[in-house]
Task: structure prediction
Amino acid sequence: QVQLVESGGGLVQAGGSLRLSCAASRNIFSFHNMGWYRQAPGKQRELVARINSDGSSAYADSMKGRFTISRDGAKNTMYLQMDSLQPEDTAVYYCNAQIIRAIVDDNYWGQGTQVTVSS
Result:
């Protein structure tokens, strides 16, 4: 069973920064990709950023240039550096890890960490 544990959330003023961490219970290179999602109150969960096994990454348009996804294989940990935070970035941020299968993919989720940005 895979466990993903997020940390690093909190309260920050607009324009500030936070770094989220996602510690995995197994080798992160065993996943085809890992990513960060977020869900604001009353809204659907949305993709923030994703990093693939080859190291390539992708971002949602509104996060490009402000957020950076990275990973450390030695620590089995993925990170999300968030800069220039705005109140609309307030949400619960979730870590995801995926293994692509022939029929049904394996998706693992962390418990989420709250990020609150005050104006």
